[in-house]
Each structure stands twice: as structure tokens, then as C-alpha cells.
Amino acid sequence: MVRTKSILLSGLFFVSGILSLQAAPKAHDLKFNLSGLKNTICFLGCNYGDKAYIQDTAKVDEKGNFEFAGDKELPGGIYFIMLKSKARYFQLIIDKEQRFSMSADTVDFTKSMKVTGSDENKIFYEYLRYITARHNELDTLEKQVKNGPDKSGAKVKLDTLNAQVVRYKLGFIHSHSDLLLSKLFNAAEEPVVPPSPKLANGRADSTFPYRYYKAHFFDNVDFTDGRLVRSEVFYPKIKEYLERLTQNDPDSIIVAADYLVQKASQDKDMFKFIVAYITSTYESSNIMGMDAVFVHMAQKYYTADKATWVTPTQLEKIRSRAQQLDPILVGKRAPTLVMPDSNNVMQAFDSIKAEYTILYFWDFDCGHCQKETPKLIRWYDSIKAEGIEVYAIQTNESSTTKWKDYVKAHKLDWINVMDIYHTSNFRHDYDVLTTPMIYLLNENKVIIAKKIDTDDLDKVLKHYKEKKWKK
Hints:
The protein has four domains: 28-116, Immunoglobulin-like (Sandwich); 126-188; 224-328, no CATH class; 338-470, 3-Layer(aba) Sandwich (Glutaredoxin). The chain contains 15 helices and 15 strands. It has helices at residues 2-22, 109-112, 119-147, 151-175, 180-188, 208-215, 234-243, 250-263, 268-283, 291-301, 312-325, 367-383, 400-409, 426-429, 454-470, and strands spanning 28-35, 40-48, 51-60, 65-70, 77-83, 88-94, 99-105, 114-116, 338-340, 346-348, 356-362, 388-394, 415-418, 437-441, 447-452. The chain has a five-stranded mixed beta sheet with strand order 13-12-11-14-15. Strands 4-1-7-8 form a four-stranded mixed beta sheet. The longest helix is centred in the N-terminal third of the chain and has 29 residues, at 119-147.
């Protein structure tokens, strides 16, 4: 009997242990009740870069209740709850407090919102209610300043109200310096540029405002706080710095990119965001030459010890792509091409004695090529006396007869070649994914421009010559 009792007791403890594990609280448990909503779906999401990402989905019952819960904490940031049925949303803060409830009326989320279990969201909605009321007042006063009977009086009221809002935000930051909302207020601030100093000639330095503004643009942004990447404030700052405050050439962008990565190096979320955003942006850029930024980022930051968020397979693809593009960046000497021409004579473009050489990758069966080739012929005939030669690579190797017939019929009076013997790897070496494709080289076979249209050649040549003359 004693032994049986022992077994029963141990079994009881075992069952109790299971119940205890089942009852363990979730790492995040967000409960909601929205009156006026029932039997639908809601989404939990956040902004990351220029996109909104859905993190989870929940079913809403007939009383407007729904819940998002999970075994892992959610990374801190500004999140949103989106209603599928009406495409409306409201915001919330997810940070240290990840077990709370919120209730509201769908008529006006901000005005009716009640929060339990999250002091930060209570404070957040107090701010939203305050700023919404002030925004309505500001909107009314701005209309009065433009069209009202007492424009000057309205202007005084408008300035007073703006100053009041500024004081409110400053007081908020002072009282809640540790909260994410305070970090966002700070990050959104722009530098106040002091008066320009005088130059030796007594005139104000006209370049000072730009230089000062750029140098102090991130003074109030905490790059050690990864919560900022999941907000609507951080991404626009990075975008503005790269696109508006940095000269639009690869070398300048690379310097700016390294500067931003260095600032973000102390926080893994910041580092990931900056590296991934810049890399993907300039990999897909439509601006010629910006692939140099992608190559730089991939080679410098996409290593196993740094880019820990990508899989080994993804890492290999990124690095291989950079390795492929590196030799054909603008400013580098073009890889050698040697192929037989239409008379089966080997032609190396290195041996072309011309001030400028055009590499033209085309396909006699390609519809776009059939439109572009005649345009290039006309352009070439009009300018070839100025020291320009065309090295035209036929990419369709299905029929040498059709190729030769096209060359003859259209009087392609330039160097026509085809990789008949398959000894070249030109598709890989020149990233020939589509046709037609034009590369422009200088007298040293250095790439001036690539993947441009015939219509761009005059403009590109003019720009290159002007830069050359200035040196």
C-alpha cells in the first residue's frame, strides 16, 4: 500500500507539473476589445523602412474581442492594429510592457481608447488626444491666417499655439526621457542653423547652412536604440540624408553609407536595418553607377560574422552577385572579349583603335533590338568620323546564317561578332540578362557608361567630355 500511495502521489505531482507548464504566461499577450466590430479579422503589424509588415492575425469574436499572444517577446517599436473590414488602424507601443489590454470604439479610436496594464500606452494616448485637439486648432488658425478677417491676430494665435505644442513636447521629453515616444520626438527634430559666419571678403559663407545642417542632422537620433527602426520617423531621416543631403554619385554615397553603418554599429537592429536598406536600395537603383554602392556594402558588411540575419545560402548569393558586378563597375577597365566576326576572323575589342568604343549586345530575333539597332546604326553613321567604333556581340547563337543575313541586309558597318565556338563567358562577365544592352568605353577601354539606350549616348558623351576638359 505504501508503494502504491507513492506512485499515486508522484503521478499527481507529474500532472500538476503539466498544468503548471500549460498555465505559464505568454511572452506577449495583447488583448483588445473594439465596440462596433465583430466576426472579422484584425492584423498586428509595424512599419519597417518604407513598408508596413504584418506580424500576426487574430479573429474577432461577436463581441469585438481578439488577442495576439506568443512565446517570444516582440521587438520594441510603434505597432498598429489594422481592421480588415474597413482598412482602418490605430497605433500602440510595444516595448517592455507586453501583457496589456486596450479597448475603444471604432467611431474614434483615439478619443475612446482605454488602456490597462501599460503605462506607456496610457501616456501615448494622452499625447495623441492632446496633439489631435491642437492639430484641429492649428488647422483652423492656418485657414484664418490665409483667408480670415483678422489675419494678423490669427497669426499671433497660431504662433502662440505652436509655441505651446513645442513646450508640451519638451516637457514630455523631460518627464519621460526613457520612453520610446520621447526618442521619436527627439529624432524628428531638425537642426537649427545659426547665422552664417563671414568670409575673408566680408560676405556670409553661402555654403555654411548646408554644411552645418548635414553635420548636425542626426544630433538628436539615438542610433543605439533599435526600437526606432520600427517607427515612421527613422526611415525618412535616413532616406533624406542619402538622397537630399549627400551628393548623388557612388563615391559620396559610399562615404555616407559607411558613416551611417558606423553610427549604427552598437545596436544589432540598427546595424541590420542600415546595412540591409542601403544594400537593397542601391542594388536595384535605376541610377547608372550606383551598383558600386551595392558592391561596396556586400563586400564589406555581408560576411558571416556581420550579416548574421541572412542564411549562408543568401549570403553566398549576395557576395557572388557583388563579385560578378565588381569588374564591370563604371570606371573600371572592361573585361576582354575575343570572338570571331562574320568572316570568321577573330576580333579582340582591346585592339580597337578608337577614342570611344561601344559594346552592343543584341539579338536578331529580339523585338526591342529590332527597334534599337536601326537607331544605333543612324547614330553611328553620323558620328563615327569622330573616333567611335562599335563592337556588336550577337547573343543569339541559334543561327549564324540569320545573323549574317541581318548584318548584310541592314548594312551594319561595324565590328560584328558571335561566340560561335562558345569560348567566352560574356553573358556572366557583362551581366547580360536582357537585350539590347550598350556599354560605352573610353580610349583605354574603361567603362564610361553601361546599360544605356542609344538616345542617351550624346548626353553621356557630352558630360564625359566636359568632365575630362575640366581636369
